[in-house]
Design goal:
Strand content: 35-45%
CATH architecture: Sandwich
Mean pLDDT: 88
Number of helices: 3
CATH topology: Immunoglobulin-like
Number of strands: 11
Amino acid sequence: MLRLTRNIALIAVWVIQAALTAPASAQTPKPIGTFGDWQALTYEENGKPVCYVFTEPAKKEGQYTSRGQVYALVTNRPADKKLNVVTIIAGYAYKEDSDVTLQIGDQKFTLFTQEGMAWATDEDDPKIVDALKKGNDMVVRGTSSKGTETIDTYSLMGFSKAYDAIGAACAKSTS
């Protein structure tokens, strides 16, 4: 059952990323490996490597009646010089003009939202990745378009190894 859920999650993340980037030609993601609670994958988009890690929350809290898939991702597109892009997929549409709070240990970051996704600023992306490598868990707080507050807690077990794996995979693809 867990394997089936992870396969569905893998497909869902790929579909979401493909829809957001609207690539002219993208391949199906290839698993690099599973590292603790994180998965690492790679694919080509317009002939350029894309590598990312993702996980689902270990715990989801909120007074919602239904919610879609929820993920945290870090994506590297080295050919486009876009590294450490932190993305949260909420499983619902965020409240318009709302921010999301991401906390790792005593470090807090504010992410901006659009529809069902939240992103860190380019300045905060590497700081968040550094905190992800050192932390134990990450807590993400957001508010849906219906006003429902959610708190998602993600395990960071395996993040560093998954992140290193995508760095190596994308480096091989660009050399």
